[in-house]
Amino acid sequence: MKYLVIIEKTNTGYSAYSPDLTGCVSTGATREEVERSMREAIEFHLEGLRKEGYEVPEPSSMCAYVEA
Length: 68
Prior knowledge:
By secondary structure, this protein is an alpha+beta fold. It has a single domain (about 1-68), classed as Double Stranded RNA Binding Domain, CATH 3.30.160. About 30% of the residues lie in helices and about 20% in strands. The protein has one helix and three strands.
């Protein structure tokens, strides 16, 4: 499954979250680091949901860029 990940620049690096996976967040010093860390966070999050018997949410978020 592919989940949308939002990456934001911070004062100390980058942060990331997925709108489809409440509470699944990550940080990193570089964009590459936060992407790698977020991939691991998503895998860990989904594994935890499955172990606890919760339904794994289907990816449903979308994104678009709008030029103004």
